[in-house]
Fold this sequence. Notes:
Blueprint: E1 14-16, E2 25-34, E3 40-48, H1 49-52, E4 58-65, H2 73-85, E5 89-94, H3 111-125, E6 130-139, H4 141-150, E7 157-163, E8 176-177, E9 180-181, H5 186-196, H6 203-206, H7 210-218, H8 223-229, H9 235-238, E10 253-258, H10 265-273, E11 280-284, H11 302-315, E12 325-330, E13 344-349, E14 357-363, E15 367-370, E16 378-380, H12 407-410, E17 414-418, E18 425-429, E19 432-439, E20 445-453, E21 459-468, E22 487-492, E23 496-500, E24 505-511, E25 527-537, E26 544-545, E27 554-556, E28 562-565, E29 568-576, E30 581-594, E31 604-617, E32 620-636, E33 641-653, E34 657-668, E35 671-683
Parallel strand pairs: 1-27, 4-5, 4-6, 6-7, 7-10, 10-11, 11-12, 15-17
Antiparallel strand pairs: 2-3, 3-5, 8-9, 12-13, 13-26, 14-15, 14-25, 16-25, 17-24, 18-23, 19-22, 19-25, 20-21, 20-24, 28-30, 29-30, 30-31, 31-32, 32-33, 33-34, 34-35
Amino acid sequence: MAFNVKQSKREPVAVLDPASLPYEILKFEDIDIPVRDGAILKGHLWIPREAWEGKIRVGTLVEYIPYRADVTIQRDAIRHPYYAGNGLASLRIDMRGSSSSDGVLTDEYLKLEQDDALDAFDHIVAQPWSNGWIGMFGKSWGGFNGLQVAARRHPALKAVISLMSTDDRYSDDVHYRGGCVLASDMLWWGSTMAAYAPRPQDPRVVGDGWRENWKQRIEVVPMVKHWLEHQTRDKYWKHGSICEDYSQVDIPVMLVGGWRDGYTSPVFRMVKNLPHPESCGLVGPWVHEYPEMAKPGPKIGYQQLSLKWFKKWLHDEGELHLPRLTAYVQDPSGIEDSYEYRNGRWVSTDSVEFSGGLEYALAPDNKLSIGQPARINYRFSGALSHGLFRGNFCPFGYPGDFPADQRYEDAKCLCFDSAELAGAVNLLGEPKINLTLSSDKKLANVSVRLVDLYPGGENVLLSWGQLNLTHRNSHENPEYLEEGRLYDVEIKLDVLGVKLEKGHRLRVALSTCDWPQAWPSAETPTLTLHGGKLVLPLLDQTKLVAAPDLGTPSICRPIKTTIDVPEGRKKTVQFDCTTFEWTLTDIEDAGQVTIPEYGNLSGIYHGSCNTNVWKIKENDPLSAYNECVYSYSMGRKEDGWNVKMETTAVLRADAENFHLSNKIVAWENDELVAEKKWVDVIKRVYN
Length: 687
């Protein structure tokens, strides 16, 4: 019988009137925050009136991001007033080169970005309303730099909440995965930032100088060029990777991840390695979103929890203590149902070991067998179309984000299947697979998927990993393979928290191709598998402690916006039988919204559409092609201020080089302002 139990569940979210909170809130927009070289950053401050009037001193929360207040206005409105209404100052800072702050934004996570944050901290603690203590919070970019700034050890920074982030910029981000170029996301994110970074300052805020600064922003070299020039884990990636020295982050950090997010494995590493005894991790079933809003459910009372966390560390109030890790172990779910809600249970542990416990050997007759690895001899290569149904690396929960039925993929792989499970098995942690391989080429990638075979139903992806085999010993110093030589390699798969039901079977699927997760090698290799072992992380019931009460979700009342153009999504996979070419097309149309009335932002509209195409011919790895087109429009019609930008990024490769082209075209009031092109040839380095 197919597994088709409906998991959908509507979860109520309490909507709070900010006026009902304990403290009256004042909001100040586009305040000036000076930094050491004379530049001015712009900030948006929510603060208790009593603090502003000098009656009390309060701790300050900082969210430090490059995404513009007019774009994040909804999430700002539901979150920052909550903190201010409960007795903290909450400051959202536009990074240098973003929104109406001075300057240009040239790359991710620069030292200058961190320096500016430290200068902002000095400015904050000098304010008469500050008690001298600061906390940082943020998701994604704001989660990354929260960790990075913590490692700079400013004395005022006392605690951090980092959501959906990483400790290792090379191993766990949108650029590389296992030493492979992450073709699904590198160019897509590069084209996105090529449109985001040049967005102009607001003339209402900065005056006539906005236009000259806009032109400077348009001239900045697209970030993706830098990323592709660093194909090994060199100093470029070590900068900003706190795993280089965890001891520098010696304040309490709460790490938040989601099983549907792309940044969950780092939570487990940091829980193990961060030195402060009250650093902790929280992992739910969520996509790349705050957990009082994220799907799939269950949502939690994240705002209440985070308030308690910061009150403890910035005001010395309360007795909050969280276990080292709290995670949601998910029950099985049909793929379509899993977008809305996952049944399961919360578990907590103070242990920091999350691997091992259940081992399977890759055995003759394509079996996964309990016991010691046997000697086998399987030759396998890969179909270049393998991976098209993998789903997004970092889902936001839109239809089409999650992996499809893996039967579309499994037929293209070397597969090993277990017997039916005799009883339920709970897994929590990082799966690993050890393989003994030889190759007929000096360059080879290997992809591994772990699949749950539902009885008579769907094949559901549990976890996956990939490795550029030249990186088998080091991401910093790769080594070519010697033809025919045996190599023992270990591949780490994404962490998971899931219950496997009685009667289900497990599958390990191997391939040398994984498009577009990995840019294919110039020649498709054939590997010989001589042995292998899968190690699964059993949940250790003996080390569980009481799980905390995570509460029910609540938010402050969102502001009203006008939807001018509705959003939409279309994602398709096509095969041309005449050219033997596969095409994955993903169109993400964010529509257009206008902010009718909200201080300085009143009347601003913004809209965008992102079209991404990946192509490959069945038997030609050099046919791999990725094109990303991003259009962005914004302005304020009542002021006669309307701007539009369109970026186009294309990536191809021959046997020796990547060929990268970028273009941006910008208009003001339908008149062409700038058109800039970059064409780069970048040597393939062990890729």
